[in-house]
Amino acid sequence: MSLTATSAKMKKDESFLGRLGGTLARKKKSKEVSDLHEEGKNAINAPMLPTGVDIHPEDTLLEENTERIMLDPTSRENLKFKDLLKVLIDWINSELEEDRIIVKDLEEDCYDGQVLQKLFEKLSGRKLNVAEVTQSEIGQKQKLQTVLEAVNELLRPHGWTIEWSVDSIHSKNLVAILYLLVALAMHFQAPIRLPEHVSVQVVVVKKREGILQTAVVTKQLTSTTENSSFFKTERDAFDTLLDHAPDKLNVVKTSLITFVNKHLNKLNLEVTELESQFADGVYLILLMGLLEDYFVPLYNFYLTPESFEQKVHNVSFAFELMQDGGLKKPKARPEDVVNLNLKSTLRVLYNLFTNYKNSE
User: Fold this and answer.
1) Residue 244: which pLDDT band, with cuts at 50, 70 and 90?
2) What is the pTM of this model?
3) 237-357: CATH homologous superfamily?
């Protein structure tokens, strides 16, 4: 190839590369402008956003007059909040053990309605007419609709405020899921100890006239376990007794002490204080063995419990023995007995008294 031809080819190549480079440069510039425009739009649409809160791109794509609620990241790190998550997850897994369902993440495992359906059916003893497995979003929302209608129908007459919806649960709104689970746990008197006074900060993002408006709101997930708006239980004779006839309380306590000592004396044991001496569960277990005439192996419970958890284990085990003996599940929670709640302890012992008062 001649020198002149080679030079012409090089100029042609340079011209082509130049045009290609110019095209790439223009596309890059165009993308930068587009990104800058999007960044500017988001900056305008999200004024005064709380520091430390990330607004994801999908959160700026809200329809007019709609809102999105997000949990503040700092609340996720709160130890009481983490404890609440763990207690609820362990409770669900315990309830659904026979169904071989294992929950690890409430947001990912509860949003499609499958776990909530099984949990409600187990707690209420009521079978819901829903498809077993639904993969489509429409099918999942239909199942959620059926489950939540049943839940709301059960809870609303007892004064519960409905803090959840099909859309909030399906969009994996953790706060809504927690409100629902706490309500179910409290209503069905789950044998768990919920951490008290758990509050979280949530960021509420709303779109009004094309502008995103943000606000930080505090949500209270749990209050106290006793005398709480979260803890709705039917009043019984012991509520009336303690509220209106405290003078008769000693008569009831004396009758129950006489009853339990009649049997515990066979093991050279004696009770003088109902609140404290049944709180670790040991006397309850031994009493059940005496009433049903069997020996309870020592490896099934803690003979000298030290921790709160060991005491709860003992009382829970005593409750299981009662149910094995044909008694109804105690209204009291094991945690309340351990916490020296007199009313709860009286309920348990009176239940035994009415069933075994003629036992020798």
Assistant:
1) low
2) 0.51
3) Calponin-like domain (1.10.418.10)
